[in-house]
## 1
Amino acid sequence: MGMGATNTIDRVAASIGAIDTVPVSFTPCMDVPSGGVLLALPALLAIGLLRHTKDFFQLKRGYYALESIFLLLAFMALSRIKTIESLRYCAPGEWGKLLGLDRIPEARTLRRKVKELTVGNTPRQWSARLCREWMEADPQSAGTLHIDGHVRVYHGQRTALPRHYVARERLCLCAETDYWVNAMDSQPFFVITKTVDPGLLHTLREDIVPRLSAEIPGQPWQQLSENPLLHRFTMVFDREGYSPDFLLEMKKERIACLTYHKYPGEDWPHDEFKRVNVPSLHGNTTELKLAERGLHLAGKIWLREIRKLSESGHQTSILATDYVSDLAPIAAALFSRWSQENFFKYMREHYSLDHLVDYNLTSLPDTTRVVNPEYRALDSQVRSKTSVLSRKLAEFGAVSLEGEIDPEKVGDYQKKKADLYEEIKKLKEEVANTKEKRKDTARHISVSALPEDDRFRALSTESRHLIDTIKMIAYRAETAMAQLLKETMSRDDDARTLLRAIYRTEADLLPDHEKGMLTIRLHHLANRTSDDAIHYLCDELNATETIFPGTNLRLFYELVSSKNP
């Protein structure tokens, strides 16, 4: 039964199928490690952790209820437990107390439960339902969306995934690409995983735009016919999405796009720029020097070109097909892209975004297009030989005859020049021949046409999608709690640091079944300022009158004091 298992009767009954699940039951417990993570429960439930779970998921009869598994996975994310395997080094009985159980499942049992939950396409359907509800709850945030790719590096040996350039490591590594759709304040809505990355433009056309068009609430359908310049919603992306053709397509769909200009040309005169107060994500304003002109891009589409002048004199060019908004909100939307980059960094460091959930592999559809290995080899030869040719040309130009004219020196000079000329001539022929071969070779082929030695399988994504959705919920819950704490803290950056400390702090669990109350008594933190912030947070959480799932116990939060036993 494992360490910490005390409810032996129910465990035996569950093993023979006599009961469906064991009921949640709390007993008085003191100094429970990581008990502070229970302070996140009201936010987790409000965000939707257990919403619709019974509609999409089903577990076989056993000891652990569906709600307990989801709560455990969310608590693990908030407590910074990186993987399911990491549970082997956590006290199962202590963690069981947080769920009203004698102990949590073993790592292998939890992996099996996660596998049961990811049968079919249920995690994606559940995530899509939550995404629609998040957008409906905050239609203003859903009106302007940041879209960017995150390269998830794979260091394993089970399959040879295609290589991607990883900017943060400046290396080409085996990886998959996740395309995230976030609000301006970095709150995630959904993610799309591509084992074979077709690029941002293809993903926007085929996956993201159709979904956003169907799911974003409050689109001004009636006003579109009255105002030909009005747009339905706004997408913000980086230079990878720069394409005059794509911008024209989106304009016809009445979707505004904001991106950087890849080829901005000459700088504008500094006297065109004026100071504009641009709102920031934290509610204050920043003064920027902005200027605007109309631009007929590539002779295909008229749009707005907005430039920001930095203190160093550098000009950043923005392209916008939003024809109705003022300069300030457009600049705020694009320059707040850093929030999504910070989201990726925070999720990698604190929520183990890049860690594998399981080691299962799945086959790619035969129609999936991949880079032709033969084309890649020829392209590599062209690049290599072109690099050598450039160096030889530079060397040829650097050879000169210096000093007095001496027959012996002239002879050496002519010989060196002649040798380099022959090398250059040969290299030019090789480069031309290789380019011709590359031209006659298909750049992309289907997976079914790959040579046997170059074929690969994809990493399974269903379990990962479930865990990623739970991590999104945990991040949203942490963000909501951070917003509460910021009201009492002088520095906004300290809110998340304090929350991480709270989640690791010990707590006393005191159930009162007669009053229908579960008191969570959090231990003191390092200083009085933190305790004052926690007092405020507890008051706000108590006002929600949250019931612990599977019980009739209302949660009540407080700090321990000398008056309490």
Note: The CA atoms of residues 238 and 259 lie 5 Å apart.
## 2
Amino acid sequence: MHRVNHRHNRENSMKPELAAILCSFIIIFFSSCPATQAQEEESHNVFYISLMTDSIDEKIRLLEKSLSSANVYIRQAASDQLVSLMLQETKLSAEIEEIIRAQASGWRADALYVTQNLNRENALSFLLGFEQNAADAGQYILNECEKKRLIFSESELIAIEGHYAVSALRYQDALNSFRAFRADENWPSHIPEIFISYPGLINDLGRAFQYTSSGNEGLNLFLQWEGNLPYGVSDDLRYRLIYWAARVARRMGQNDRAVSLFEQAHVFAPDSAQKDACIWYILDSSMSGPVNNIMERMERLIPLIYSGSAVNDIMERYLHRLVSMRNWRNIIRTYDLIKNIDGLNLKAGFAWVIARAFEEGYLSAEDRQLAAGAQADASVFMRIAYNEGDVMLVPAVYYRMLSADSLNLPFMEFSDDIPETEDFCAAAQFLLGFFENGAADYSIPYIRSLEGTLTPDELRAVACELEKAEMYIHSMRLISLYINNEGYVKNRRDLELMYPRPFLNLIETNAEFFNIAPSLLYGLIRQESAFQISVGSSAGAVGLMQLMQATARDMADRIRRAGGPNFFSANGSVDSSNPEINVYIGSYYYNYLLNLFNNNEQLSLMAYNGGLGRVRQWRNASNLPVDLLVESVTIYETRDYGRRIPALARIYEELYYR
């Protein structure tokens, strides 16, 4: 989206910057004096208290006090909170307004700059570029423009209204607004000047067409505008028009046309991320077509990929399709294409499948020669899968697990030494303050905004506090930000944070009672709910083990008839949100599936996710060994589940039960 950074255009307005420097100097100087230590500690703590108070007057008082903190991130966060109140028409003193203008960050700082330097150019740059969370600021600037009688042209008002609707995800309203550019029901044959000045509007109009039923109108319009672009316009403008025409065509199911347009867009893409996005769409749109077409596009486009991670999901789906077809030769050809692409973790999957095809005798002499010459055998590709899977990412780590077992190599290697750091940066101290002051529930937006500035030691410290607050899904995510960094040595504490063991007594007791490995039960629950008791799915699954109500009732009835506990309430329902009930019934259900599938864990796990009937059907229709059958399962979620839970279980086994 087109954004103008107003702070790059402030040569004529240096007062806010000077005020910020002077304010920081004064605060640091005085906070170093012993007499101000208690005051500084109080100004540090009151910010967190302000987040938890409902009284606007008290909130303002506490936030104003926070502006004197020596921690720049507290001052900045307090300023941002006060700006948000100001944008909601809360009256602040002129002195406080001056301070927060110097301290505010991000879009709030942009909004304040615009209001302080109000003219059409600054206002339009913000109003046609703000994102969804800055809608209040947009309305505030419009109000200020009205007060100062700053008049916009008709086309500018149309664009503002359309952008505002898109930012609120009201795509039909946005399209209705943009249609005001038409004359006599016809769009102009040339792109309006405002779209050239503010190219982000093309994105807005593209989304409006994509997410409404008017795709054909949008497709024709973008292609007409692109064809009539004046000489000398930027490649970025041409790229946006072709790219959104392609997105609309894809949405309409016109895959061949979409592929052709994405091919054209790729030529004009302004950066590597956009080039990779075009390649992703080309390959994604090709997946349902003939394999020969896919291979031709793979051979042409994979060498152009900047980051292999951009197409990991595509390669997973392609591997699934090729295994389902027993097309071992193209699996070998595809591996040869991707083997040197950084960040493409599915290399481990392709290598494992080739190894298993060797073992099972599925490869012809020509296939074996294509794979790696006459000397090739399964162990060569198992070693590749083992090495490529040395990341804490599924499915790569799953293939490492399988290869480790086959080659008798260690699955996980990590250090027991945990580096300890107490000299945390100001950003880390600010984040840790949420937990020291009982404000953990308010911490997540701030963690997300600052996590990129923290070292692994600082991220670990914040993750430890999140774990103590039982916010496991967030502590696990923080560790994932660095645990796979190149050259990083994994340590036990990082892994314990990424694979925690809450509800220890509950889970281990049920695992022992139902003769299930506790590591497997932990892996299953981590995947299903991330240890969130009250989480529910859109399909209606509930609780730690994500039980559907029908399944819970069926299993509860079986448990009762077998002489076990009665989990039915007086009205005949089962409270699956209760952790004790949920884990007991979920463990019983998994044990029930194990018995049906002759203790085969992968088939039982896939049945837990995808349903007993489906797995029986897949098993009966295939003569592939189970590990290759998993690759051929038609439902991605179930296919992924059959790989993910065994890998998670093995990690828990290595960490806690060996």
Note: Residues 382 and 403 are 5 Å apart (CA to CA).
## 3
Amino acid sequence: MRGKIVNVCLAVVNILLSAIILVYTLLIPKDSNMLTIQEGIVVGYINILLYINIIAVAVADIIQSYNHRNDSVFNIFYLIGVFSVGFIFIKTPFICLFGIITGLVVLIKSLKENLVELNSIVGISISIVLMIGILVTGGLVYKYSDLGQYIKNKENENELKYNTEYFKYITELEETDTPYINVKKDGKYGYIDDNGNELIPFKYEFATPFVEISAYGKRFQVALVCIDGSTKIILKNERDVLSYKSESKSENYGAKYEELANIYKNTLKQEEPMKYEIDDIKESILKAKAYNDDSTDYTYRYDYNDEYDFIVTESFIENTYELAKKEDLDVRIEVEVKHVDYDKYYLYLYSNRTIPFFDNIDEDSAKYQGWITEYGTKKSLTGNVQILDFFDDKVLLKDWNKKKVYFVDADDSSLVPVSETFSDIYVCQNGNYIVKTDDYNFKVIDKDFNKVFETEYKVINPRLTAKELYLVTDNIDNVDFNDFGYAKMNWSILNREGNSIYDNIEQIYDIYYKLPDDDKINENNYLKFQNELKELNYHFPGDKFYEDKKSK
């Protein structure tokens, strides 16, 4: 096997293999989670073929290195070619250089020198077979995405395609206030109600909340579920609307919710924003709606109260704010403030219908914040304190120097706290508050600041508070993550009295937490994950004026 033709053939084999390795590393993602399910199947076969080619070429190089043991150039460079087998463990482009160098050196030396040894028919035949195998593998690498799509199309031939007249001939299900809450427990998803009773058995590999759609003048609730390798859209009676083979795995929560949104808009042709059964309440800010009128006299006009409209006139120098009589807009009261919270749709108000204002917010001098009464009277306070909102005879404040939240009496100008201080707060619709204590635990208190239930938790998630349910967990230090970086939580659902109605929940509703950054579990990433768990994310009027303080 020391003849010229054999060496030339093996040189070409090494160059081809290295080129395929280079194409593989550039085209195919290192992270298998970035592949679709079908692409993953193709890449799996490509890996087998590629490893067979690598090992076969490495064996051939070892044999040739031994055959040329008396020729230092051939001997060394064939051994360098053997190193290309390291691609099995090091999937980086630079590894291909070793095979290319081997091939070029052997090729040039073989063509220049007069090798008198007889060419081995077996050696030439093996080289040709290797070339064919490498070229076939290269073709698969180049077309892996198209092949994945072909597999997906073949798989979907036996699935239930969506019929655009599907909803024309079925009746609406009986309306009920009972929510269907998707829960993952013991590796399977099912649906429960707000008392913990099972509504749909735990048989799915994945399940989303139900969303409302309209078709043919009727309303239906649909959800996306995964079962037996298929992804389906179902009704609450478990009837299939459509099914298909998905590109994403059921453990990739973000991708599955994107699929639901895509089907909602593009397949079911829904124009309204997608909305789940249980509202995700992040604020309770009162809003005065802007009029839809064009005027050269002002920029925006808002329907403030029965007697006055609020007018904003924007200017490059300084905006002007005025209360204008509804019956005669020329009768105005100018309000001398620098900033109010508004956009082209709404003027944002406190819950007592006063208008918040913010002065010197962007300056290092004393900060002024306050409210404008319905008749234009200006009330203010000084200091690095944000008025969050009014609750009956109490005012909720945030001290940005101490990063603390607390209540004061509305009539007490000294701003002495009448409650404990908290690190964060969420306002529930039923008048309770979820608060993060100074030691970063969570509890639920009522409007008199008494505990609603005695136990405190490391995390209370407010996502289901619209149904007076609280998600709680004390397990945040030893959380496992799936292959896509999503947390396997251990939630419990508490009712309004603090009694558990369902435990050991891995994932629930549309709540999922993911490792940040590069999806790797390390101290910094895990700390970010824990901090995200503890965020309440409730919004108050004027928050946008304090964004710089939140990041400090």
Note: Residues 4-155 form one domain.
